Amino acid sequence: MDRGVGGIFQMKNIVVIAPYMDLYNLSIRLIEEHNFSNVEVFLGDLEHGMSLAQNAVELGARVIISRGGTYNLIKKNINVPVVEIRLTAFDILRSFKGVYNYDGKIGVIGYKNVIYGYDVLEEILGSNAVKYIIEKDDIVEERIKQCITDGIEVFVGDSIVCRIANQLGCKSHLITSGEESIISSIEESIRILEGLRYEKEITEKLITLIDSVHDGIISVDKDEKIIVFNSIAQKMFNLNNNEVIGKKLGDIVGDKYRKLIVNDTAKIGEIIDIRKEKYTFNSVPIIVDDESIGTVITFQNITYLQNLEKNIRVKLLERGFIAKYNFDNIVHKSNQIENCIENAKKYSKYDSPILIEGPSGVGKELFVQSIHNYGSRKNRPFIAINCAAIPPTLIESELFGYVGGAFTGAKKSGKAGIFELGHGGTLLV
C-alpha cells in the first residue's frame, strides 16, 4: 500500500486520507504534537484516495478521515465510519488572501461540503465572486471551461478544481483546512472508535451468553431475515452460522417454520417437530416504540427436559426429599375423616400455609404429604423437619445454611439450608 511518503508496517485503527500534500504534512505534524498514536496518514485524491481507504480497511483500519470530493467518494464505497474534515467559512476566507485585490471575476467551484459557508461571506467578498456547485467529478473540467468562456480566469476550490484550472492555464487558490478542523475530526474519530469498541464488547458478551445456554435461539428482523442463530440452533438444524445470517428463515429451514415468526402476540409453550425430534418453543415479538421490529424464538428439546426432570426427581428421592403418600393411602371409615380429606384437597390448590392440628399418631404427616402430592407442587421437594430436635445454636444454620468455613466444624464446601433445599416445594415443621 503506497502512502505517498515512506511505507507502513502496521495499520492503525484511524486513517486520514489527505487529498493534497499540505494537508498531509499538517496532519503528520498535528498527530505528532498531540500524540495521536493510533492515527495514520496517506496522500491520495479522489479515486486514488478511495483505493487507499479500501486497502486500509482491508488491513484493519476502522475509521477513515478525509475531506471534500475524496470524502464523498470514500463514504459511498466503504462500510466503516467515515469522518469529514469540515471546511468552515473561515477556511474559505483564508483562501481568498491571494485574490483580495483582484478586480476580475473569481470562480468559487467545489462540492457542496467544500464551499459550504461561502454564502456567509458573499457580501464581504463582493459581487466579483461567482459560486458553482459540483455534483459529479466528471463535470469539473466542463464547468471550469464554461467559466473561462464567461471570462473567469481565477478559481478558488478543492484540489481537483485547482489541478484542472492550472492545466487549463488559469490561476487557482486551494481552500485549505485549518488545524482546528483536523484536530476536531481526529477527536471525533477517537470517540467513534471508543463507541465501536464498547459495542463490540457488548456484542461479544451477548454472543457468549446466547451460546452458553441450553436453549436454541433464533432471532429475525422485521423482514424475516436471521440476525441470531446460536450454537444450539445450529445443531438442531445442522447448519452453520455463516450459512444463515442475513437470509430469510423460510428459505433456510423451510416454509413450515414461518409460523414461528410473530408480529404482535407471543406464542408460549408451543410444540414443533424438528428433524424427527419434538421441541417446545416460545416466540416473542421485539417491540420498539410500539412497533414490531422482529421476533425472538427459543427452543427446548422435550426429551432433554423430561430427562432433566427425571434426574432431579431421582436426586430428590436419594436425599429423601419426596412425599410418598397420597389421599388413597389414608385408610378410614368415618365421615369426619372423609370431610377432612375433601377439605384438604381444596386447600391443596392454594399456595398458603396450612395448620393441621391433632394428637400424636392420628396421621397429620399423611395428610401433609397427600396435600403436597395432590397440589401443583407435587414435582417439587417435600421436606419434613422436627424443630424441637434441633439445638437452638444450630437452628439458624439448619434453616438458612452457611458458606464454607463460617464457623468451627463447618464443612469446607458449605451447606444449603432447609429453605433453599425446599424452594418451590413444601416444608413440614
Helix content: 25-40%
Name of the CATH homologous superfamily of the largest domain: P-loop containing nucleotide triphosphate hydrolases
The appropriate CATH architecture of the largest domain is: 3-Layer(aba) Sandwich
Strand order of the largest sheet: 10-9-13-12-11
Percentage of residues in DSSP E strands: 15-25%
Count every beta strand, where a strand is a DSSP E run of 2 or more residues: 17
Overall 3D form:
elongated
- Counted up, domains total 4
Distance between the termini: 79 Å
Low-confidence stretches: 2-9
CATH level 1 name of the largest domain: Alpha Beta
Largest sheet: 5 strands, antiparallel
Structure description:
The protein is an alpha/beta fold. The protein folds into four domains: 14-84, Rossmann fold, CATH 3.40.50.2300; 89-176, Rossmann fold, CATH 3.40.50.10660; 213-304, Beta-Lactamase (2-Layer Sandwich), CATH 3.30.450.20; 319-428, P-loop containing nucleotide triphosphate hydrolases (Rossmann fold), CATH 3.40.50.300. Helices cover 40% and strands 21% of the residues. The protein is built from 16 helices and 17 strands. The strands form five sheets. A five-stranded antiparallel sheet has the order 10-9-13-12-11. Strands 2-1-3-4 form a four-stranded parallel sheet, with helices on both faces. Helix 2 (46-58) crosses helix 3 (68-77). The radius of gyration is 38 Å and the shape is elongated. The chain starts with 13 loop residues before the first strand and ends with a strand.
